[in-house]
Please model this.
Amino acid sequence: MMKKNTFIFLAFILGLSLLFSACRNAKDQTPVRIALSKGIPDSSYANYYRYIHHYDSLAVCVDLYGMPLDSALKRFESCSGLILTGGTDIEPAVYGKPADTSRCWPVDHKRDSLEFALFSAARMAGIPILGICRGEQLINVACGGSLYVDLPADFDTSIAHQCTDYLKCFHTVTVESGTLLHEITGVYAGEVTSNHHQGVERLGTGLRAAAHSADGLVEAVEWRHPEGQSFMLAVQWHPERMEPGNALSENIAKRFLEESRNYFTEKQQKHGR
Model:
């Protein structure tokens, strides 16, 4: 009888241990929610979903573009990371060049307003930010910087930053030592996919250039003084279109997702969940 009771007790303890372990694992695997400033799934923006899911199959990508601004900002409160995605030109009047609007691709005022608001909200909340192509340009403008409206006309270069077939448009970038980008990638140079006709002209306040192309164009920006700031890295190239294994793509995704998961965990702990 003693042995039978001991067995039942041990089985009960084992059952509780397995239950607690399952609950803990379920909590650990709660999907992180990543906001996409524009991420229509059935278009070229599907690349962003594939990019994120390749490195975190459980991540939930939330496209905020189709919502009214107040609804998008409310939905953003449930997210733990923000990707400012590529796309059309930012309104030149925002960075002091109103006469150049006619030289741009059709501007999207709704998107401009949404992304400036999301960037501000992410900074205030400490949410990790990744800017890609237009996203890098938007961050620069949001911080008071300016853009070259049309690189072929305004910037002396022989490098093809944009090609008819963007899948075959590559060039080399040089990564600055001592930068977050170098810490993340571990490389000083590499080949990237390019597809843009605008670029950073005057750096925004509080930013520093983390990479350049051979013609001197800024190819990545980050905080000059990151202490007390949310994680932020922005690149002019398209890491979501590059092959896994490239440090200038894979390492960026992994670090951004790590920062986003850390933010989620800290948020849960703060609210006692």
Observations:
- The radius of gyration is 22 Å.
- Residues 18-27 have pLDDT under 50 and may be disordered.
- The chain is about 35% helix and 20% strand.
